[in-house]
């Protein structure tokens, strides 16, 4: 039990979620290491959404709303930290949700499938019963794509993704939006839109933006997307890190 008046309460609460998800068997052991890396970047970012991330989120939400087949990809960490928030974002952007695990096992997929069902989301893709395609033509468990989801998707949101799969999806011609606290990661560098923020702040903010943009016309959304420059935005994100006291 973490006392609410602890100065690091919010951070410890996230750690607890990650640890419990590991003990429940759906978060990869490496997921705890990935979380620790994310924590460090978030600490240096001041644990707040910086203006560059807000700009990237606007372009990301506009892209999801303009997409024909938008998909939100989820893994163990995203499920542990933001399951309800992902479901809300899917509803507000008419996106599908697909399980896409780097360390894919049937057991983890089943557990995540059940969790989404328990949270009221019935038709998750990428399950053990889905019609899966393998992007690299060999049945590499890291390269799965549901034929109703990632396989036909034009825009994919990948929160907390590893570089290899981001690369695979990019090679498959998808527009990639990532949420990654590390602006220097391969995923951030190769994505079309990189949101340098914590998934726990970014996903709810994207849902808020989606409700704001929902009734805007296509030209309004296209202008946001076209005015966005990911390289420039990543530089701004990097400048937001405080490495001095
Ligand atoms: O559940 P699986 O099997 O798909 O595995 C998921 C992990 C995260 C273990 C896997 O994709 C992996 O190994 O990822 P990496 O290569 O460690 O990359 C994760 C990135 O997410 C790192 O750049 C972290 O800094 C970043 N990160 C960690 N926590 C957060 C985060 N970014 C945003 N919000 C976070 N809470």
Task: Give the helix/strand layout.
Elements (H helix, E strand, L loop, with lengths): L8 H15 L5 H16 L6 H16 L3 E5 L1 H18 L2 E4 L6 H13 L13 E3 L9 E3 L8 E5 L3 H9 L3 E5 L6 H5 L2 E3 L3 H15 L4 H10 L2 H10 L6
Parallel strand pairs: 1-2, 1-5, 5-6, 6-7
Antiparallel strand pairs: 3-4
The site of ligand PTJ has 25 residues, from helix 2 and helix 4.
What is shown here, in short?
The protein has 245 residues and is of the alpha/beta class.
Specify the structural class. Answer: alpha/beta
- The CATH superfamily title: Phosphopantoate/pantothenate synthetase
Order of helices and strands: HHHEHEHEEEHEHEHHH
Q: How much β-strand is present in the residues?
A: 5-15%
Instruction: Please provide the count of β strands.
Output: 7
The CATH class: Alpha Beta
Unreliable parts: none
Radius of gyration: 17 Å
Mean pLDDT: 94
Domain count, please report it.
Answer: 1
Through-space gap between termini:
31 Å
Q: Please report the number of helical segments.
A: 10
Describe the structure.
The chain is of the alpha/beta class. The chain has a single domain (51-239), classed as Rossmann fold (3-Layer(aba) Sandwich). Helix content is 52%, strand content 11%. The chain contains 10 helices and 7 strands. It has helices at residues 9-23, 29-44, 51-66, 76-93, 106-118, 163-171, 186-190, 199-213, 218-227, 230-239, and strands spanning 70-74, 96-99, 132-134, 144-146, 155-159, 175-179, 193-195. The strands form 2 sheets. The chain has a 5-stranded parallel beta sheet with strand order 2-1-5-6-7, with helices on both faces. The chain has a two-stranded antiparallel sheet with strand order 3-4. Strand 6, helix 7 (186-190) and strand 7 (193-195) form a beta-alpha-beta unit. Helix 3 (51-66) crosses helix 8 (199-213) and helix 3 runs antiparallel to helix 10. The radius of gyration is 17 Å and the shape is globular. It starts with 8 loop residues before the first helix and ends in a 6-residue tail after the last helix. The mean pLDDT is 94. Residues 28, 30-31, 34-35, 37-38, 41, 75-77, 81, 101-103, 160-162, 179-182, 185, 198-199 line the site of ligand PTJ.
């Amino acid at each position: 039990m973490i006392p609410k008046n602890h100065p690091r309460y919010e951070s410890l609460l996230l750690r607890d979620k990650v640890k419990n998800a590991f003990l429940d068997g759906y978060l990869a052991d490496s997921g705890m290491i990935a979380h620790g890396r994310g924590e460090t970047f978030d600490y240096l970012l001041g644990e707040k959404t910086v203006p560059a991330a807000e700009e990237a989120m606007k372009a990301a939400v506009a892209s999801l709303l303009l997409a024909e087949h938008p998909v939100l990809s989820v893994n163990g960490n995203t499920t542990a930290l933001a399951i309800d928030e992902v479901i809300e974002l899917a509803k507000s952007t008419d996106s599908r949700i697909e399980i896409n695990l780097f360390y894919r096992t049937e057991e983890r997929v089943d557990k995540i499938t059940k969790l989404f069902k328990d949270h009221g989301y019935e038709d998750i893709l990428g399950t053990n019963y889905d019609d899966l395609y393998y992007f690299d033509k060999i049945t590499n468990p890291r390269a799965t794509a549901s034929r109703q989801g990632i396989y036909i998707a034009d825009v994919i949101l990948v929160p907390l993704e590893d570089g290899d799969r981001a690369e695979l999806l990019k090679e498959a011609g998808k527009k990639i939006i990532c949420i990654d606290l590390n602006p220097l990661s391969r995923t951030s560098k190769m994505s079309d839109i990189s949101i340098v923020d914590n998934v726990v702040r970014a996903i709810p903010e994207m849902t808020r933006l989606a409700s704001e943009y929902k009734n805007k016309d296509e030209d309004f959304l296209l202008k946001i997307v076209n005015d966005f420059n990911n390289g420039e935005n990543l530089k701004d994100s990097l400048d937001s890190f405080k490495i001095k006291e």
